[in-house]
Design brief:
mainly alpha; Rossmann fold; Tyrosyl-Transfer RNA Synthetase; 3-stranded parallel sheet; two-stranded parallel ribbon; about 5% strand; binds tryptophanyl-5'AMP
């Protein structure tokens, strides 16, 4: 708790351009929950290094992600929004927690298996211990709740296991965090292959809606979205493409599945795809406009980067010092 509020922690990797999946699965929930909790949101730039980055592009993209959090509606005066690499406690805590994590449990992580298959020429140790750094992120802030999409739940589970293991030995050091998955939008699928999740790193740009795509591009991508050969708009297992579009429309319009199937009863795929596209354009419009304004105000963004990094350092350092002491590391002489 900070004051009378519970603590919320979340973040995104600064890899690739943010997609509608990131928005509906995570960012949108962050905004909904931000008044109720004391919130910390990281731009996870250290995690991004598990894949080779072009330094100049990476720097630009990380800053863009930072700005996007604010453009989407997070108030940087009320929420602590910061770069993971600006707070050294993350890397330090990750080392300590590495010593409480087993090779066996890390080998079972599906994201590690997927990413190793995708980057077979660069299966580095960082990719393997990636969930430990994520556990460090969350546990440093004593988070009660972690809003994520479904794909991150396994990492949250290992975070809880590590925290419980540590607490069993050293007492109640860490708060055990709960995952928060939204009712809609928790797993948005690719528009070109609805059996795969929509991903920032998809090579096919038509598979993902990027948050800064212009309206024409968004509508075009929805028109091209892969569906099935039928014509009925209903939520059925054999219609993964239509299910995905219904989920997107539900998350953007607030209507539930039944309302949507009724609304499009007897109408064709073309009309439905257009409605989904327009509803996505509508929710992204204010974010895109705010993004332009914020990008023009470098001094403002710089000032909040600095202020929030200090706040995150202060909060995280309290937990790090406590953990170091519990472990028996020699205290600093002041
Ligand atoms: P990342 O950067 O892959 O994704 C950021 C958030 O977006 C969600 N998400 C999706 N939700 C619905 N449908 C999709 N297609 C979709 N794709 C992504 C993810 O579930 C996530 O919530 N390891 C994390 C970043 C991280 C983190 C943390 C998150 C590092 N430390 C601490 C929470 C707490 C990741 O790679 O997310």
């Amino acid at each position: 708790m900070i004051g009378d509020k519970k603590i919320l922690y979340s973040g995104m990797q600064a890899t690739g351009n943010l997609t509608l999946g990131n928005y509906l699965g995570a960012l949108n929930n962050w905004i909904k929950l931000s008044e109720e909790y004391e919130c910390f949101y990281g731009v996870m730039d250290l995690h991004s290094l598990t894949v080779r980055q072009n330094p100049a592009e990476f720097r630009k993209r990380a800053r863009m992600l930072y700005t996007l959090y604010i453009a989407a509606g997070l108030d940087p005066k009320k929420n602590c929004i910061y770069f993971q690499s600006h707070v050294s406690a993350h890397a330090e805590m990750a080392w300590l927690l590495n010593c409480f994590t087993y090779m066996g449990e890390l080998s079972r992580m599906t994201q590690f298996k997927d990413k190793s298959a995708k980057h077979a020429d660069n299966i580095n140790a960082g990719l393997f211990t990636y969930p430990v750094l994520m556990a460090a992120d969350i546990l440093l802030y004593q988070a009660d709740v972690v809003p994520v999409g479904i794909d991150q739940l396994q990492h949250l589970e290992i975070t809880r296991d590590i925290a419980e293991r540590f607490n069993n030995i050293y007492g109640d050091v860490f708060t055990i965090p709960e995952g928060y998955v939204g009712k809609t939008g928790a797993k948005i699928m690719s528009l070109q292959d609805p059996t795969k999740k929509m991903s920032k790193s998809d090579e096919n740009i038509n598979a993902s809606i990027y948050l800064l795509d212009d309206p024409d591009t968004i509508i075009r991508k929805f028109k091209r979205a892969v569906t099935d050969s039928g014509s009925e708009i209903c939520y059925r297992e054999d219609k993964p493409g239509i299910c995905n579009l219904i989920d997107i429309y539900s998350a953007t319009s607030g209507k539930n599945r039944d309302e949507i199937t009724r609304e499009f009863d007897g109408k064709g795929y073309g009309e439905f795809k257009l409605a989904v596209g327009e509803s996505v354009v509508d929710i992204l419009k204010p974010l895109q406009a705010r993004m332009k304004e914020l990008q023009a105000d470098k001094a403002y963004i710089d000032s909040i980067i600095k202020e929030n990094a200090e706040k995150a350092s202060y909060t995280s350092m309290k937990t790090l010092r406590k953990v170091q002491k519990k472990l028996g590391l020699t205290e600093r002489i002041r």
